Amino acid sequence: RGSEPLEACLDHGLDSRRKYGAGEWIQIYTTVYRMCVQTVPQSYSEELYLRSEKRIEHYLTRSALPALRAKKEARGEVLLKELAKRWENHAVVVRWVRRIFEYVDRHYVRRAERPDLRAVAYLCFKKVVFDDIRKPIVDAVLAMIAKERDGEDVDTSMVKTVANIFVQLGDYTASAGGQDAMDIYEEFFESPFIEMTAQHYRRKSEKWGEEDSFPAFMIKAESALLDEIARNAKYCHPQTEERLLKTCESEILVRHLTRLLEKEHTGLVSLLEHNARDDLSRLYRLFSRVNVTNGLPPVAAHFKAHIEKEGIALVNAKQNAEEPEVATPAAGAAAAGPAAAGAAAAGT
Fold first, then answer.
1. Taking a C-beta distance cutoff of 8 angstroms, is the pair 291, 245 a contact?
2. 160, 141 in Cβ contact below 8 A?
3. Average pLDDT rounded to a whole number, residues 166-181
4. Cα–Cα distance between 173 and 224 in angstroms, integer?
5. How many Å apart are CA 239 and CA 30, to the nearest integer?
6. Around 324, how many Cα atoms within 13 Å sit in the side-chain half-sphere?
7. Any idea what DSSP says for residue 254?
8. Helix then strand then coil, % of the chain, to nearest 5
9. 20, 48, 195, 204: which has the fewest C-beta neighbours closer than 10 Å?
10. What span, in angstroms and rounded, lies between the C-alpha atoms of 96 and 87?
């Protein structure tokens, strides 16, 4: 019952500190301490440990989960704001539970080799809340990212908040859940985000390839890559950048490389013939990127083929210019004049 004032504060948006005066705090902590220091079987350490978990589950089931389910249909930013609110409330609960049951955490947990109360509390959040509303949350985040990519104004800080929740939830539960700290973020945020990015630039780059010249395509490609670097910095974990850029480079550059190099009137040959240095520099910057698979070798192969073709043409032209013309009898007679031509004809 010691947690009821705290839960009431969270439910009504009040400052939880007002409900816990110094005297009440000391009374609760002392009660827990006395229940734990008694000798077995009178010690209540294990029971308090289990009851704290049940109480957290009860609060999440009674308050947080219904509130989030009610926002499911609204989706979008409304749902994400409710998630952020419930996550903050849960952090307050965890903080107070760890204070109240500090003796349990410091002594019983270590002796029994069980997950600490913070891990238990966040495992409860994952089981009761996160696993239930995970899909609409992910869908809402991806929808906001798609809108932002299309030029709409969205609250990117909210996307960042949700991404951080995924990271923190994995970090707090990793030791107790037998998983890597980044598993939740990678599975439920990063991977869907990367897949959505691949589909987005697959469509975009296909349209660019059909409608734009090679130089115009490269300008859009370079701009898109810079946008994704900025986007990753705004709301993704730093580890996502490498995978994100590799995906973008694959969909935008590698997928269309041969067609672009051979594009009529604006391909590589045209750039070389017109000495388009800015475009050639951009081409090198883009296709020499570390994450572009086989980016420069195809460019080099086309460049080599062009040089060989031009070189052979120059050699042939020079050889033709240096060879003397061999005159035939008829041609020589014609050059000497009509009379000589007649004589030549008569002799024949």
1. yes
2. no
3. 87
4. 36
5. 45
6. 3
7. G
8. 80, 0, 20
9. 195
10. 14
- Segment 255-277 shows an average pLDDT of 92
Tokens found for residue 286: 């883009």
Instruction: Record the tokens describing residue 299, joined without a space.
Output: 């460019």
Maximum mean pLDDT: which of 23-27, 157-161, 306-310, 328-332: 157-161
φ, ψ of residue 238 to 5 degrees: the values are -55, -30
Whole-number Å distance between alpha carbons of 228 and 172: 29
If residue 299 lies in a helix (H) or strand (E), which one and from where to where?
Answer: helix 296-322
pTM to 2 decimal places: 0.81
pLDDT tens digits, 8-57: 666 655 555 555 566 777 777 788 888 888 776 777 888 888 988 998 99
CA distance 57 to 46: 17
Contacts of 89 by beta carbon, 8 Å cutoff, 6+ apart: 10, 64
Please tell me the distance from the alpha carbon of residue 272 to that of residue 277, in angstroms, as a whole number.
Answer: 8
Return d(Cα 231, Cα 148) in angstroms, integer: 9
Asked if residues 156 and 141 have their Cβ atoms less than 8 Å apart, the reply is no
CA dist 268 and 273 (Å) reads 9
- The rounded distance, in Å, linking the Cα atoms of 57 and 63 is 10
What torsion, rounded to 10 degrees, do the Cα atoms 199, 149, 204, 197 define?
-20
pLDDT in tens, 127-139: 999 999 999 999 9
